[in-house]
Amino acid sequence: MSETFCDLAGQSCKPCEGGIPALTAEQAGEMMKQLDDGWVLAGDASYIEREFKFKGFAKAVYLTNAACFLADQQGHHPDIRMGWGYCTVRFTTHAVNGLSDNDFICAAKLDAMVKG
């Protein structure tokens, strides 16, 4: 995987209806190098997750809304948990029962939004 973080964030998700293999743990580990250090790869490489911490409720809501907007634009929808002072975003590709490039594209785009 020779893409850089900027390259990943500049890509768009491609529709996934299954029929492709999920990324292997090794492939997912390589892709993790392109994301913010806050992302965690599940032990079985089935999802990536990042918890964002805030002082208060409003910023957690704002990030939740931004993640939802990004997901809608990309057609790739994460699981999101939020409450006072936190927002946790988890990406996985249900159609392949694991991770795909789309998960890393969306994570990189969210990283760029947060840094932006």
The biggest sheet amounts to: 4 strands, antiparallel
Radius of gyration, whole Å:
14 Å
Strand content: 15-25%
Strand order within the widest sheet?
1-2-4-3
What portion of residues is helical? 25-40%
Q: How many beta strands in the DSSP annotation?
A: 4
CATH superfamily of the domain at 37-115: Transcriptional coactivator/pterin dehydratase
CATH class of the domain at 37-115: Alpha Beta
Distance between the termini: 25 Å
Shape: globular
Under the CATH scheme, the architecture of the domain at 37-115 is 2-Layer Sandwich
Catalytic activity: (4aS,6R)-4a-hydroxy-L-erythro-5,6,7,8-tetrahydrobiopterin = (6R)-L-erythro-6,7-dihydrobiopterin + H2O
InterPro entries: PCD_sf (IPR036428), Pterin-4-alpha-carb_dehyd (IPR050376), Pterin_deHydtase (IPR001533)
Organism: Marinobacterium aestuariivivens
Pfam family, one: Pterin_4a
Secondary-structure blueprint:
Layout: H1 5-9, H2 25-32, E1 40-41, E2 48-53, H3 58-74, E3 79-83, E4 86-91, H4 101-115
Antiparallel strand pairs: 1-2, 2-4, 3-4
Keywords: Lyase
Pfam family, one: Pterin_4a
EC number: 4.2.1.96
Characteristic key phrases:
Pterin-4-alpha-carb_dehyd; Gyrase A, domain 2; alpha+beta; globular; 116 residues; four-stranded antiparallel β-sheet; PCD_sf; lyase; 4 strands; EC 4.2.1.96; single chain
Question: Concise description?
Answer:
Its EC number is 4.2.1.96. By secondary structure, the protein is an alpha+beta fold. Helix content is 39%, strand content 16%.
